[in-house]
Each structure stands twice: as C-alpha cells, then as structure tokens.
Amino acid sequence: MVSAVFHAPLDIPQEAPQIIANNDSPISARGQKHLESSQAVGRRAPRDWSALPRAFWLAVLPPLCGLGLLVGLWAVLSSTTGGSIPSPKDTWLQAVEVFSDPFYRNGPNDQGVGWNVLMSLQRVAVGFGLAALVGIPAGFAIGRFAFLSRMFNPLISLLRPVSPLAWLPIGLLVFKGANPAAIWTIFICSIWPMVINTAVGVQRVPQDYLNVARVLNLSEWKVLTKILFPSVLPYMLTGVRLAVGTAWLVIVAAEMLTGGVGIGFWVWDEWNNLNVKNIIIAIFVIGIVGLLLEAALVKLATAFTFEEVKS
Amino acid sequence: MNASLSTKFIEVQGVEQTFKTAKGLFPALQGINLTIAKGEFVALIGHSGCGKSTLLNLIAGLTTPTHGALLCANREIKGPGPERAVVFQNHSLLPWLTCFDNIHLAVERVFGSKEGKAQLKARTDAALALVGLTHAGQKRPGEISGGMKQRVGIARALSMEPQVLLMDEPFGALDALTRAKLQDELLDIVARTHSTVVMVTHDVDEAVLLSDKIVMMTNGPAATIGEVLHVELPRPRKRVELAEDPRYVHYRKAVIEFLYTRQAHVEKAA
C-alpha cells in the first residue's frame, strides 16, 4: 500500500525532463546568455531528477518496506488479539491528540509528553555530564600510568557488569530523593564506557607521535593538548556514544522505579491507567529520541576523526 | 687527514643493545664503535634487521644501550632532545595539525622562550620555504602527497636548527623519481646549513651520493660495524655527472660487494 502511493508520482517526472532538455538545447546554442543563465537553474534540476530515481528508490524504498512490515504485523496482531493491543490507526489518532498539546501541566502526575521527555533528557544530561567530568580524566590517568591501570582494572571489571538499577537503592539511601537517585544510576551506567574507551585510546596513541613528543621534548601540557587529546578524541567520542545510548536505555527503567515526571514514569503511569495506546506512543518517542542522540554523536565523532587515525 | 674530520662530535663507545623478547634475550647490536665529526654526512647501510635503526634510535636517545656509552659534544646522551632532530621513516606528522602548525610546534618548543611570535612565525615560514612547500602550509598532512609529507618532516627537523639531523630511511617509502628529487634537495640544504647528518638507508646509490662516510653493518643478530668507507667525492655533487665518474662507480662497487658478497643476506623463515 505504501509503495503504491510512491509509485505513481515518480514515473511521470522521469520522462518529462527529457523532453524539456531537448527543446532547450538549441536556444542555448544560439548564445542567448541571459536567457541561458536564467534557464540553467530550471534546466539542471530536471536533469538531476532523471538520474535520481534509482538512487532514490534504493535509499527510500527498503526503509519504507521495513516500516510497512512493522505496521502490518502490528495491525495483524491487533486484530487477532481482539483490540487489547490498539490498532495502528487508533494509535496514530491518539498520537495526534497527545502531540497537539505536549506541554500541558495538570498537577505533578499529569503532564504533557513533551515535559516527560525533557525531564528524562535533563536527568540523562546531568548524570552523563557528571560521569564525563569524572570518567574522561580518570580514563586519561588510567591509560597514561600503568600503576593506575593495574590498580583500577579489577575494580572496573568487578563493577561494570552490575546492572545500573542495582545501584538505585544505594542512590535512594545516600541522596534521600528519587531524582538524585535516578541521576546517580545514569552516572554509574555511563561512566564505564567513557573510562574504558578513553583509557584504551590513550594506550593506543601511536608510538610515532609519542616519539615526536620525546624528540621535541614537549612539556606534559603540550603532549596532552597537541598529541594525546586529539588522538584519543575518536575513542573518547565512541565512549560518549555508548554511554549516552546506555543512559537512555537505563533512564526509562530507573524512572519506572522512582516515579516523578519522565518518559519512563509516563509509560508506567499509562500502564496503570491501562492506556496501551500511550505506551506504544511512548515506545516510538523513546526510539526516536535515542535515534536522534545517536545520529548527533556519530556526526560529532566523524568531524573529529582524522584520516591517519581512521586507518 | 682533514682537520674537521678529526674532531669527534658524536662518539659511540662499545655499545651493545639487547632486547627482551618472548623467546628470551635478543642481541641486536654488539661492539659498536663509531665517531662522527661535525658537519659530516654519515650513512648507515645494511640488510634489513641488522640494527641500523636501533643504532639511530640510540643516537637519538629514544632508547638507552644495554652496555657502552654514547656521547654528543662530549656529553652523554641521556634522552632525546631537540638538538638531535629526527626525521622519521613514516614522517610522523600529527594529522590534526596543518603543515605550518606541525613545524610551528617544534619551532615554538626550541625558540619559544627567547623569541617573539613574529619571529617564530618567520622561522616556520622559512622552514616551509626551505623545502619548497610555502603553498601547502595551511593543508593537513592527509591532503598532501607522501613526498610532500616527508619534506614537511624534514622541514620540521631542520626548523629546530639541530646540531645533528638523524634520518631513518627518510625516502624509503617514496617512488624513485620523488626520492631522487628529495635527495638533491637534501644535498642542497645540507650544503647550506652545514648540518651533521646520520642517515639510515638500504639504497646504495643514495648512500654514495649523499655521504662522506658509509658505515656498513654486518647481518644480525649481534650486528656490528663491518667496514667504514670514506667517500671522497668533491661537493657539490651532481647525480648525472657522478653516474659515469670512475670513483663513484668504485665506491658503489665496494658497497655492493660488501652487502651482496660478504654479507649476503640469509633468508630466514619468518
């Protein structure tokens, strides 16, 4: 159904530009420069279009098929369970309603989805920011000094596999509040990838660059800013990406347990209200926000990766 | 004997270098004795794995010998320093800095405490001009060719006004034409700056063309200096004229004879 909608409009422009281009060429040959320049824009565009469809289809069609499959399966599931799982159409209508006013406030336990997402993002930002503040310098120190590396490796190996949610009670005990406890959980889960990746990056700085530093007899500060930091940056950004990804996974679970305002709490609240449509909407919202976070960080990482470092 | 050649500038005294490997101790160098005079161009030649680079790293101070001593200007070499600039085999430019900044990093370190910003910039520009790369100053190493990168590496080393220039197969990774061009440029630069140069090479023509003294090394393990050949060709040397010069042919033959007859490389199973 989805592909049928896209099929019709694309077939027509594929042939149309050919005709326009052929009619135009004798005019430009006569050397009407003003005409040519003003027409060039109009003429070039359809030419590109004629080359576009193949690439366009390859780029757009498969993802649309994937989404179509998801929606199709969902529709089948909905109809076979007799509507206990709402249909895609009902959910869509509900989503339009939910997003028509995402920033309303009716008391502390009834706020718009926008507020919930923003609150969750805020917790992730604070917890992740604190983790970066501690984890990145710690990673540098562990990577640079063998003693620290041997000292902390057993600790990291022991604590890293622990589910961050296991730290939640400790957070509640120490900070005596739901919000700081959730931030604490995010802090714990996002610190490990940053420490480990930064340390690995420091250990993998090419010996050549360190030899340059030794021959030039650079100060420790110059070594850090001109050699270590730039060559560790790609590793560090990988750590950041993994950390943000994990943090976004964990915040939903943490908020389900702590309550308050947040996307995880929203899911749990809607479950208590038996509003399955909103739960499905929340799943999509969580997915899309996670996707955007990931895409932004990948873009950041490629901007700071240099040719020789990649190879 | 020439007066300048009699002065000892770099002295290598009974140096032995042993590496610890997974299979036990590996004796790389043994009984190395060598003196290099100020302004002398010395080539270290030998088959791969004979410890040429190991010896160069020792002179650079990047590694310390197991036994023996190395002196530079009558002082023991304790570690690397900007007075002994190294041109690395793979250029080792920092890919996140422009060519200008790569050189400027070295200039700033050596002269930063004595000179102003304008002077430092002038020195960097001069180093770029020396290797004919003024136009590429604002490019990153990833955007220029291999030959250009190696020239930036040489410019970086020269910009420090080192007492000794240590080059580890600087042109090894380049094609023959680019290599010849850079050799000519190096001859020209060394003639102007009167640098003391120690260069590791495996190229016989390069060694004869450039150096005053060719240090030929025996095969490892436990490599040592097999023979030292003094190349007494007049400078400035011109590649094309030398090609038919009987003395050039003689020196070339001497090196080849050493490398391929007396020290014929035994291929070991890797």
Task: Give keywords.
heterodimer, A: about 300 residues, mainly alpha, MetI-like fold, 2 domains, 12 helices, about 0% strand, disordered N terminus, B: alpha/beta, 6-stranded mixed beta sheet, 4-stranded antiparallel beta sheet, about 35% helix, about 25% strand
Number of discrete helical segments of chain A: 12
Strand content of chain B: 15-25%
Multimeric state: heterodimer
**CATH architecture group name of the largest domain in chain A:** Orthogonal Bundle
Tell me the CATH topology of the largest domain in chain A: MetI-like fold
Radius of gyration of chain A: 27 Å
Any idea what the shape of chain A is? globular
Strand content of chain A: under 5%
**Percent helix of chain B:** 25-40%
State the name of the first-level CATH class of the largest domain in chain A: Mainly Alpha
Q: Whole-Å distance between the termini of chain A?
A: 45 Å
How is the main sheet of chain A built?
A: none
If you compute it from the alpha carbons, what radius of gyration of chain B comes out, rounded to the nearest whole angstrom? Answer: 19 Å
Nearest-integer average pLDDT of chain B: 87
Largest chain interface and its two residue counts? A-B, 18 and 24 residues
Helix-strand pattern of chain A, N to C? HHHHHHHHHHHH
**Spans of at least 5 consecutive residues with low confidence of chain A:** 1-46
Structural class of chain A, by secondary structure, is: mainly alpha
